[in-house]
Design brief:
heterodimer; A: 464 residues; three-stranded mixed beta sheet; two-stranded antiparallel sheet; 53% helix; elongated; B: 224 residues; alpha/beta; five-stranded mixed beta sheet
Chain lengths: 464, 224
């Protein structure tokens, strides 16, 4: 049973941590959630109803209904009612007419409408039917006169107000159902955080922009101290999974390995494991080149190498070195690869250079090359292995670019790891946790710069 | 710019870009946004040393003058790695900086006199070893539209200065106070070219900030 008073869940709304929370995932939802800080389902339902375009654009007396609701909740504006008789109906929403059901109740209470007639009013509001609205207005004014709770002028004003609300008012049953769903997601996020992120990441591919979704989820997971990791040969799964207290990308979450190719890679690793009777975590770099590489297509192998899949403690190769040596290994002919595969169990070369050294002589001289031209080519590659024309260490900026390309976002490092951060004295997380002060210096990755024209010398409020 | 830049240079054994043999290739990768140095590439390339063999293969023999300029010897070049192998490694190096893995985001080639010289060699090597675009009949290693020829760039900046008589790399080194040590070593040439390019590009960015491009001719004041 979910506790609707769970403070950890309500804090998520208050702090604007609404990624993955139903109906409030967008920037707009996050910003308004932070401003309103809902504390119960009633307020959450109102928030969901009030962040629709109609509400935000419905400026009455210089304020949107959404802003009015927020200000009244935080006691920045006095709660007032058009007529005292409306208080019982509008009190839960601080005097703001948020729901169509509230308009129906007003009609029942002030104009003596039957439920059927009140429903006609709802239809007229919801479907914006002018002819029906005119009919209902006539009935409303007549009914109000008969009831006598309000004067005819007040009845006219109240109906005008209801009419205006047709631009934004929302169906309450719908809003409450959404709010309950939203709270459930908040409850799981607050109490089963790792599982929450795992399930959202698992289904990220079904979103319109999967890379954007993954990017946002991974960044938010970091704020919850959840480590997200790249898959490694020593510890991998098919799809996103919880591993060693963190969430790990699966092989099929890597770009270009999402479909059948991913299945083939997993099958190839399992085959190799059986073939050489070793666990994948114990594969050496030569095991990978000799047994695994020929079973995987080149694009998939390069994708895996570039995200550091093969860079384990046992292999000891950098991502660039893996890519470079794979490129060189692919220079071999099928016959030469066969010679290497046959001889590897006995020779057990620990480095590609040693392997090429023994392969280099022609077959007559005890090597694996078919002729002198091939010997020359292999010799050339040995030289290129000894003296690579470029640095094979992994530059942080390059790692970030590769992970962004293959996984949708940087995982092992963040963009700021590629720059000098010695000047910073505060992290973004500290600021989010409320650190304030005069001399705060943070290093942050600026993603978007927006220019706002200031009207009436009041800057637009921006949060998030 | 949202693509990286590869400043590169070939040292060759001749002057005709359609037939000369490259003897060295060097390059540096620059971040297109802030011009941060991202990587370096440098490798000798083994040409066909024997003149008759070179002619038979349809390329120009190595010229003594070229060897003198680059400070190489035939014996040293004979021990250099084979050009096909080096080219493949160079392609791998360039592809490292195609950060979206699509032709549109391929790095932009830059260098001194590349349009008239080095790009012809790139096209030759791409046609022979790859990657080659059959439809466009041109290389598809670098970006296929943008190219930055620093020589043209320097010429456009200095064309009104009567004191600038030559815009050869050697003259520019002297004029701009760059060291001439290791000049004509491909990697040093590339670094000097990159320094000149970055200086000019930064100046251009500063000028652009104060320029009005939008509707610049809306007032009808045309030059021609």
């Amino acid at each position: 049973m979910i506790d609707l008073k769970d403070q950890k869940s309500w804090n998520l709304y208050k702090d604007g941590m609404t990624k993955g929370l139903f109906q409030l995932e967008s920037n707009l939802g996050r910003a308004w959630s932070k401003r309103l800080a809902p504390e119960n389902i009633e307020e959450l339902a109102a928030l969901i109803a009030l962040i629709r375009p109609g509400c935000l654009k419905a400026i009455i007396d210089g304020k949107s209904m959404t802003q009015r609701f927020v200000d009244r909740k935080h006691k920045k504006e006095e709660v007032s009612y058009l007529h005292e008789s409306l208080e019982s109906i509008l009190k839960p929403t601080y005097g703001v007419l948020v729901y169509q059901e509230q308009a129906m109740l007003i009609a029942v209470q002030l104009a003596g409408f039957s439920e059927m007639e009140a429903d006609n009013l709802r239809k007229a509001i919801g479907k914006k039917k002018a002819d029906l609205m005119a009919q209902v207005k006539e009935a409303f004014l007549k009914g109000a006169a008969n009831k006598g709770i309000v004067t005819s002028e007040e009845a006219e004003e109240i109906f005008g107000w209801i009419e205006k609300s047709s631009r934004y008012s929302f169906n309450k049953s719908h809003a409450v159902a959404y709010a309950v769903d939203s709270f459930w997601s908040a409850y799981y996020k607050a109490n089963f955080t790792k599982e929450f992120f795992l399930s959202y990441l698992f289904y990220a591919n079904e979103k319109q922009d999967p890379h954007r979704e993954i990017y946002e989820l991974v960044n938010e997971a970091k704020l919850f101290n959840i480590e997200v990791k790249v898959p490694k040969l020593s510890n991998f799964s098919t799809k996103f999974a919880i591993k060693e207290d963190g969430i790990c990308f699966g092989i099929k979450d890597i770009k270009s390995l999402t479909g059948v190719t991913g299945d083939k890679v997993i099958a190839a690793i399992e085959d190799t494991s059986q073939e050489i009777s070793k666990e994948p975590k114990d594969f050496t770099w030569m095991d990978i080149l000799v047994y695994l590489a020929p079973k995987i297509n080149s694009t998939a192998f390069k994708a895996l190498a570039s995200i550091g899949f093969f860079s384990t403690r046992v292999t000891g190769v950098t991502r660039n070195q893996a890519l470079y040596e794979y490129l060189i290994f692919r220079e071999l002919t099928k016959t030469e690869v066969k010679w290497v595969t046959v001889n590897y169990p006995d020779k057990k070369w620990d480095k590609l250079g040693n392997c090429f050294g023994e392969l280099c002589p022609t077959k007559k001289l005890g090597g694996g090359c078919s002729n002198i031209n091939r010997s020359q080519i292999v010799e050339n590659e040995i030289e290129m292995l000894k003296n690579p024309p470029y640095d094979l260490s992994d530059d942080p900026a390059w790692i970030i670019d590769q992970e962004t390309k293959m996984l949708g976002c940087p995982v092992s490092l963040s963009r700021i790891d590629a720059v000098d951060t010695s000047i910073a004295n505060t992290s973004c997380k500290d600021v989010m946790n409320g650190k304030k002060g005069k001399d705060i210096c943070i290093v942050a990755n600026l993603q978007r710069v927006a220019n706002h024209k200031i009207k009436r010398k009041v800057a637009p409020r921006r949060e998030g | 710019m949202n693509r990286d830049i590869i400043v590169f240079d070939f040292e060759t054994g001749g002057r005709n870009p359609m037939k000369c043999q490259p003897t060295q290739i060097a390059a540096i990768a620059l971040d297109g946004r802030n011009f941060r140095l991202k990587g370096e590439f440098n490798s000798m390339m083994r040409p066909i040393i024997d003149d008759e063999e070179a002619i038979a293969a349809g390329v120009d023999p190595i010229e003594e003058g070229a060897l003198k300029v680059t400070g190489q010897t035939r014996a040293k070049l004979a021990r250099a790695p084979l050009p096909k192998g080096v080219w493949k490694k160079f392609c791998a190096f360039v592809n490292k900086y195609n950060w979206k893995g699509t032709p549109y985001f391929a790095p932009i080639p830059a260098g001194f006199n590349i349009i008239g010289y080095d790009m012809h060699i790139v096209n030759r090597l791409c046609k022979e070893v790859g990657p080659w675009d059959d439809n466009r009949q041109q290389q598809k290693l670098f970006h296929q539209i943008y190219k930055i020829d620093v020589m043209d760039d320097v010429w456009l900046w200095t064309e009104g200065d009567p004191d600038v008589k030559s815009i050869s790399m050697d003259s520019l080194r002297e004029r701009m106070g760059l060291s001439s040590e290791n000049a004509h070593d491909a990697l040093q040439d590339v670094k000097d070219t990159a320094n000149i390019f970055i200086k000019l590009q930064k100046s251009r960015r500063a000028v652009y900030r104060n320029m009005k491009f939008e509707k610049a001719f809306a007032d009808g004041k045309l030059f021609v």
